[in-house]
Amino acid sequence: MPLRSPDYYSNQLIGLELNARALCIDVGKKQVYTASGKTYAFDRLLLAMGADPVKLPIPNASESNSFYLRSYADGRALLREPHRQSQGVVFHLDNAVTRLEGRMAVLKSGARVEADFLVLGVGVRPSVALAE
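The structure assignment produced for this chain is given below.
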């Protein structure tokens, strides 16, 4: 979700390139090389590389039963799940899932909770691969 309109950036004389995957930055030449083959020159460069969700090593967890809520697209995908009409949603804050046993989530507290699927919001790590 954009924070500002494209007009904001052009009014500030900022070249905004969305969805452009940078492959290499040549700091000496002040150029960015992208996956599409385009090269962009820069005076100053802001890398807004985003972040990746922290994924927990939960035994038996898979992409079909565990959702990491990190982006607008993640939320939209969750809304498409048929389970959204279920009887209710329960938050177990200040607790953690230690493992899954079928449809049973075993929590750090020892409690066992039946679950159709999990929504995990654990945190993020910066995507720094390009900068390294």
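Interim note for the steering committee: Residues 72-79 form the longest helix (8 residues). DSSP finds two helices and ten strands in the chain.
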